[in-house]
Specification:
Blueprint (H helix, E strand, L loop, with lengths): L8 E3 L2 E3 L1 H13 L5 H11 L11 H13 L28 E2 L2 H4 L2 E5 L5 H11 L11 E8 L6 E10 L5 H7 L3 H7 L3 E9 L3 E2 L3 H21 L5 E7 L5 H5 L3 E5 L17 E7 L4 H6 L15
Helix pairs in contact: 2-3
Length: about 300
Amino acid sequence: MDARFDAPFWVGERYFAEADIALMHTTITQCQGLSRGELVSTLCEILPWKSPTGQLRRGACHGLLDDWEARGVELPPKRTHAPTPRPEHQGTPVPLLTVRTTLAALQPVQVVPVRDADRLAWNATMATYHPLGFRRICGTRQAYWILSTTEASPRILGGILFATAAKALRDRDTWIGWDPALRARFRARIVSNSRFLILPSIQVTNLASHVLRLAAQRLPADWTARYGFAPVLVETFVEAPWRGTVYAAANWTQVGETTGRGRNDRHKTATLPRKTIWMYPLIRQWRRALLTPWPVGMDAEEGFDA
């Protein structure tokens, strides 16, 4: 067996034994005529490497092959394509409705998943009104509208987005109790509240913390329906001059701060603003779910207490 494959190991929730790596090694050798994308699909099918909903784990497989290629494993070259323009912000932002009232008068407030037909409007709304703007999100994600349904036609109050968690955060990982191996194995169980917007024309005391609680209540089921598993923690980052008052009011915990390098700082030279890190558990046994190794051969979902 080629030592460069380093079995056994985990990629997310998939355990790779020596037999799996031997099968991949044989397939790569025998399928040199395939493109990289075709090889990825073939490997995901034969392993099998699929989500609980039956989708091929193509993105994770691409990442694993990239790592092997960097370590000297010969693979089919990647095909390059001219970038395709994406009309991410060609939608129209929702109009600003002035609302000054109490939370009780605004009820019922709901967080509702954004439909495909409304995606461009949601993107444009976030890009227009959020202090950090908005660009296309890659990876896992779940976007919501924030609505008030007191009237015949629901009023849009804002939006909230959950997406892929940060790859590595010193203070977060220390707070959880992760080493690099545990982080690589369980990071998918954390999602990031990467955007949260109450429209600037809305002035309702306690609305924001109420929305955070509503979103936390329905996120696990929506994430499971979309990706086949439930997250157990949510993270977010707060940059000065904001202090995270809304998150504190919703019972989130501040666990530290970022190092100021960012997601893509490969050379550790970036000097970005430091942000405070806030975490919120979605289940009581979240620490056990993120730290307890599953016995080899046990299905991931059997070892997860949601």
